[in-house]
Write the structure tokens for this entry.
Amino acid sequence: ESAGPALSDLDLSPLRGRRIVLDPGHGGRFRGARGPNGLAEAEVNLGVALYLRGLLEWAGATVSLTRSADVDLTTPRDSTLAGDLARRVALADSLRSDVFVSIHHNSNAARDPVLNETQTYYPAGREGADLDLARAIHKHMVHVLGISPARIMAGGFYVLRNAPVPAVLGEPAMLSNPVIEGRLTLARSHEIEARAYFRGLLEYFA
């Protein structure tokens, strides 16, 4: 790790006993964005979430994932995307979690191969703890990825609007950019993003 002190040198006590729900976006029938060479966002989101779970558990947090495999959260009675999203949020509610972190990777509509951006979303209209959480995560993501432009934005995504606890949705980089897609095929890149989320969560709880 080039940036800042090693994780083992940090005071991890603020994370101890915290209940954190990680939501690797998409999965199963819902593939999310696709890179120019076919890398599925669903796969990358899960890779980052699994690394992040490991780090948070090491620090003493209790971590739940909305999915830990390439599945969606549909049921035979409700196979809609809305149902899938509702079940993600319901988990945060039922576990009385402290925060909800939804992990994504963006694509731009025009599929412009040059465009790249780091975006961190908080629920529109919730400028308190939610914005604090977004700022902390965004700061560390920008620091490790160095992508410009980088913006914190109010978002109206279902999982943010309906999250019962402070929530953030991260889009650290764009899969439509072939350089980023190539990078995100590597576990090392998943780990780098996971460390940024980890440091942001540590800072938020501290």
